[in-house]
Amino acid sequence: MTSRRFDMTERPEKPPRRERVQPDVDILSEVLRAVRLRGAVYYRVSASTPWVAEAPDAGEIASYVMPGSEHVIEYHVVTQGSCWGGLIGEPSVRLEAGDIIVFPQGDAHVLGSAEGMRGPTNVEFHERSALERLPVRVDYGGSGRDPVQLVCGFLACDARPFNPLLATLPRMLYLKKRTSGYSDMLDQFMHCALAESRVPRAGGEVVLARLSELMFVEVVRGYIASREGAERGWLSGLRDEVVGRALAALHGRPAHPWKLDDLAQAVGASRSVLAARFMEYVGVPPIQYLAQWRMQLAGTLLAGPSTLGAIAEAVGYGSEAAFSRAFKKMVGVGPANWRTMRAGEARG
Q1: What is the reported pTM?
Q2: How does residue 189 score in pLDDT terms, banded at 50, 70 and 90?
Q3: For a designed S-S bond to 47, which of 51, 53, 67, 207 qualifies (C-beta 3.0 to 4.6 A apart)?
Q4: Which residues pair with 39 in a beta bridge?
Q5: What CATH number corresponds to the domain at position 106?
Q6: Do 293 and 336 fall into the same domain?
Q7: In whole angstroms, what is the distance from residue 45 CA to residue 200 CA?
Q8: Does 67 share its domain with 145?
Q9: CA–CA distance, 42 with 279 (Å, rounded to integer)
Q10: Which domain holds residue 320?
Q11: What are the tens digits of pLDDT across the range 74-126?
């Protein structure tokens, strides 16, 4: 594990004057709001052995299950029985009642009554399901025993301009009920989702959507807890003394004209220690990370009515022209074109 001791040889002669760091900044919540996380429970599945269900890449069905979404995450909650699940071509994991499996990158995957099973994919099935009232009841399999029940759904979020959480999550993420990362809250969310999906009621789709989002956040929390001692990655950086304080400062005041010296003073570390640790965990220098995060905030604001000048000021640029140049350099298109493109995607 990487040492957390500061480099004492580089400590300044005088104690550094600290810019106020906001230790109470909830960085994960900030990111989830900025990338517009939203969910939907689509299927309530009942299956009997033998059965198999193979899901295509989420990009192939995104326009049906989450219209207007840039990136789609699929998840499955086992509410009764057991099954196997995993990425296509990768080892499967055994899932039991209470377990949750998530595919953050939207990869094709398979669920079945036995390890290593494969089945046909059916994009048209998702197209038809989009026209029905949610959640859609689905039955799989034969007349065998060992019935399995699942609640399956999707989560949508922005992947661009910059989603640090999505970039650090694995292709498959699963949380087993019998592990330390599993919380009582997940049990409560699961029971609520199951009860809400059994009997359609007014407002049920919205309730299920919010429960999906809450379950996802709780799974990510469990994943963070399981990474205790991990040396690299944005999520691990949240737990690091130096990097975590730096991220809190950048997310707490994204429009502030941060320089490396100012940020180092704010977190109480030398420039070299901060630069090295931030690069080790996050993969880019702190000021580059800030530039990327500013563009994500700008992308979110561009979905609303704010003028380009107001957005430029909100994300720390002195003029609309400077903001437009920076946005186009990082994203590939200017902010006005980005706004037009996103408006078209939202209309489907």
Answers
A1: 0.85
A2: confident
A3: 51
A4: 155
A5: 2.60.120.10
A6: yes
A7: 15
A8: yes
A9: 40
A10: 8-28+233-346
A11: 999 999 999 999 999 999 999 999 999 999 999 999 999 999 999 998 899 89
